[in-house]
Design a protein that fits this description.
By secondary structure, this protein is of the alpha/beta class. 33% of the residues lie in helices and 25% in strands. The chain has a single domain, classed as Nucleotidyltransferase, domain 5, CATH 3.30.420. Helix 1 packs across helix 2. The radius of gyration is 15 Å and the shape is globular.
Length: 130
């Protein structure tokens, strides 16, 4: 099973490409405020490096938090949209070994269908001005 692993909770975003539990390729990049602009390009880069396309992805693991509100929102929304559009299972994890934990869950048949971010605290929402 070709699995894409995504972590975007901090300024350095991470991607991993696995064949079952074997890491084929992985890297991180300083995404910070350019995450929304770069995440799709970086995913395409890691796939192309192994002569794969989006259509080859058979499962997605995503770090669900806790972490940066904006980083988690962008990364998880991207992962959820990819899983839905490709019709593949997705698992969200938050352990120290989040990637391998999620891969094992995917290989065991788990599918969260949609990952909900865990920000680690309530959102601080500004009240509207009257």
């Amino acid at each position: 099973m070709l699995i894409l692993a995504v972590r975007t909770d901090k300024p350095e975003a991470e991607l991993g490409l696995y064949e079952d539990e074997e890491l084929l390729d992985g890297f991180d990049w300083l995404a910070h405020r350019k995450l929304a602009e770069t995440i799709h390009l970086q995913i395409a880069t890691i796939l192309k490096a192994k002569s794969k396309t989006f259509a080859n992805v058979q499962g997605i693991v995503v770090y669900k938090g806790p972490g940066s509100f904006t980083g988690l929102r962008i990364g998880i929304a991207t992962a959820n949209a990819m899983a839905d559009s490709l019709g593949v299972p997705i698992v969200g994890t938050s352990s120290e070994n989040w990637g391998l934990t999620g891969i094992k869950l995917l290989l065991a048949g788990k599918n969260d269908k949609q990952v909900i971010p865990d920000y680690g605290a309530d959102a601080h929402i500004t009240q509207p001005k009257r």
